[in-house]
Design a protein that fits this description.
single chain; two-stranded parallel sheet; 9% strand; 115 residues; alpha+beta
């Protein structure tokens, strides 16, 4: 597990009232907003304190740092102890198979090994 602390889902307060209001987070700015006032029974507001520790940021849940791979040369630059490969979506089937074979040779973990 990368970040041991469980974070709440930060959703926009009361999006159900209006269909045009989406659920992505927006800071509440209303004068009488209960979320802005951080009242006990209301949803939590994101703040700097919810962030992960510096050494845990940008890590995959497996504990590896993700590296985007588009070809075989990119694969050779990866450190198998600290980094894992994620094959780019634009890579075709033939090249994907070659990348998977080369990764197995080098002992590199591939995060999306589907064919």
């Amino acid at each position: 597990m990368v970040n041991p602390r469980k974070k709440p889902e930060f959703k926009r307060p009361v999006p159900a009232h209006l269909s045009r209001v989406k659920e992505s987070w927006r800071r509440p700015r209303g004068l009488q907003s209960k979320v802005r006032l951080k009242l006990k029974s209301k949803p939590k507001m994101p703040s700097i304190s919810w962030g992960a520790h510096k050494e845990l940021r940008y890590l995959h849940p497996s504990g590896y740092r993700e590296v985007l791979v588009r070809n075989l040369k990119d694969l050779e630059k990866i450190d198998p102890k600290k980094e894992a490969a994620r094959i780019a979506a634009a890579v075709g089937r033939k090249k994907r198979i070659k990348i998977l074979e080369k990764a197995k040779e080098l002992g590199i973990k591939v995060l999306n090994p589907r064919l």
